[in-house]
Write a structure and sequence with these properties.
576 residues, Immunoglobulin-like, 6 domains, five-stranded mixed β-sheet, 53 strands, 0% helix, Invasin/intimin_cell_adhesion, calcium ion binding, Ig-like_fold
Length: 576
């Protein structure tokens, strides 16, 4: 006043009644290892309603450290900041809540797994064990890595080693986001393989099994009874082993056969035939106890047997030969051989023993040894056969197909033969001729009267030359038709000249169905004799031109095909 001034100083303090949080929390050290010791600093700023920092205020801070809920009371400093150290054992976000004057503020801090304390949890998960020891199948081991608080640890390197000659694509693996890593192992050696894994000086060893590889070599086998068996190995084990392999089989082998348990080879002599059976062969690795199996089929055929039906034979030179001297049964795929070599032009069927061909050179009597075994080396059966090649009779088939009729006599030569060496020929026929017929064995004539109908049948005429002993055969056919029957219906008839005539004199049935008719003497002028091919009716028809006195006419009806099928009937005819 009046040009003079005076000053007084007053003091204002923050208004604690209006305490509140200002700004955002200050977080330092996040993320931090979730090891329960390394802390994250979280600061909360407290001011009054006018924004003045409030020191010496009690701020309650709470959070979950992964094991329990934690609560601490911290006083604000001169700047109004309340700071707390927050630790955790659970990886991930952790909410930190501060409370003052009935108000709350929250901060989020982050904890990550503690790689420094990396270690395995539990035992690895093994899949695919036991596996084939041929490098085609693999075994997978899956490891899980955590820190000391149990948090899964990604991106951690596990070093791995294997023994027992096992192989893998790599020597280390890295954990994924779930803290897991898988390791694949293969082996060509059966037995136990130890897989050793290490991380952060933590080690774990796991045993896995590779089983011996057994494969069927002979899936199906037929052996022969009484035939010794050596070195029959139906299976093969291709993997190596540090131990000893032993073999077993189920069900039991047929009587006479044994299994070598050290090699898997079957040997012995089958005692009798047995049906095809499926067997299971199992191989066991003595070092690990691992087993593997495969199956195969085995049967025993009846013992090889040979019977002889012909001991000596004269063959016809330049003629077809089809000779069966032995009959082979049993065994598996018989093998037939002969010594010395057969005459030129002849061949031996090595499976059946049949001798076929056309011998082209004359030979004297020769003794041949026929030997029979089979693919299983059954004991050899030996038999002898005498063969001669000589000129045989020349044959001509006169009648290849002959139709006869029941009741019609026959006498015919179906086959004509001549001997090139002037020998006497003898004849025989097979199968037996139809009932009522017989064969003259000295000239080959078939004669007689058939008694019953028979269909077409093929017969074989065999002709033997008495001088050379050689035989030749040809075939011909015989059939026996129903009986040839003529039934007369008109015996006497008087007709009128210049008037149409149609008289059914008789009817014909049976035989071949192909007939012809004739009359003697000739019928009166204008009349004709005919036969209906369908009905078999024999008819006199026409218009007689002049009168004719009574006359007996002989009408003959004959089968055009069947020998001896003929019948003559009489018609007494007058023309007025």
């Amino acid at each position: 006043v009046n040009g003079q001034a005076q000053q007084a100083v007053v003091k204002f303090v923050p208004d604690a009644v209006s305490a509140r949080f200002t700004g955002t929390p200050v977080v330092t050290g996040s993320p931090s290892p979730a090891n329960g010791t390394t802390a994250v600093q979280v600061g909360f700023t407290v001011t009054d309603g006018s924004g003045n920092p409030l020191p010496d205020q009690d701020v309650v801070i709470t959070y979950n450290d992964g094991t329990a809920e934690r609560s601490v009371t911290v006083k604000t400093d001169a700047g109004g900041v309340a700071q707390a150290d927050v630790t955790g054992t659970r990886a991930g976000d952790t909410a930190v809540t501060a409370q003052v004057n009935g108000q709350a503020q929250q901060a989020v801090v982050k904890f990550v797994p503690d790689a420094v304390s990396a270690r395995f949890t539990g035992t690895p998960v093994v899949t695919g064990s036991p596996a084939q020891a041929d490098n085609s199948e693999s075994i997978t081991l899956t490891y899980k890595v955590i820190d000391k608080s149990g948090n899964t640890l990604p991106n951690q390197t596990i070093t791995i080693s294997v023994n027992n000659n096992a192989v893998s694509d790599n020597s280390s693996v890295v954990t994924d986001n779930q803290g897991e890593a898988s390791f694949v192992v293969r082996n060509s050696q059966s037995g136990t393989t130890t897989v050793s894994a290490s991380i952060n000086s933590h080690d774990i060893s796991t045993d896995i099994i590779f089983k011996p590889v057994i494969r069927t070599v002979v899936a199906n086998k037929m052996l022969s009874a009484k035939a010794p068996v050596t070195g029959y190995a139906p299976v093969d084990t291709i993997s190596t082993t540090a131990g000893v392999l032993t073999y077993s089989i189920s069900p039991s082998l047929p009587a006479g056969l044994v299994l070598d348990s050290a090699t898997g080879v079957i040997s012995g002599t089958p005692a009798a035939a047995s049906v095809v059976t499926t067997y299971t062969m199992t191989v066991r690795d003595g070092s690990s106890g691992a087993e593997n199996s495969t199956t195969f089929s085995l049967g025993i055929a009846p013992a090889l047997a040979v019977t002889q039906s012909l001991y000596s034979k004269v063959l016809s030179m330049n003629s077809n030969v089809n000779l069966t001297a032995i009959n082979v049964t049993g065994g598996v795929s018989p093998v037939v051989s002969i010594s010395p070599s057969l005459p030129q032009g002849l061949n031996l069927n090595a499976s059946t023993g049949e001798i076929t061909g056309i011998p082209t050179v004359e030979t004297g009597a020769t003794t041949y040894t026929i030997s029979v075994t089979d693919q299983n080396a059954s004991p050899v059966k030996r038999l002898t056969l005498s063969l001669t090649v000589a000129p045989g009779p020349d044959l001509t088939v006169n009648t290849a197909d002959k139709m006869l009729a029941v009741g019609a006599g026959v006498n015919y030569l179906p086959v004509a033969g001549t001997s090139p060496v002037g020998g006497i020929l003898s004849y025989r026929v097979s199968p037996p001729l139809p009932s009522g017929l017989g064969l003259n064995s000295t000239n080959g004539v078939i004669s007689g009267t058939p008694r019953a109908v028979s269909s077409v049948m093929t017969y074989t005429m065999t002709v033997r030359d008495g001088r050379s002993g050689a035989e030749n055969s040809v075939e011909f056919n015989i059939s026996v038709l129903p009986r040839f029957v003529v039934t007369q219906t008109i015996y006497v008839r008087t007709v009128t000249s210049s008037t149409s005539v149609n008289i059914e004199v008789a009817s014909v049935s049976g035989g071949s169905g192909t007939y012809r008719v004739s009359v003697s003497p000739a019928l009166p002028t204008g009349l004709d004799l005919s036969i209906d091919a369908t009905s078999g009716a024999v008819t006199v028809s026409g218009i007689p031109t002049a009168a004719a006195s009574v006359q007996d006419y002989a009408i003959t009806i004959q089968d055009d095909v069947v020998d001896g099928a003929s019948n003559t009937r009489t018609l007494k005819l007058t023309v007025n």
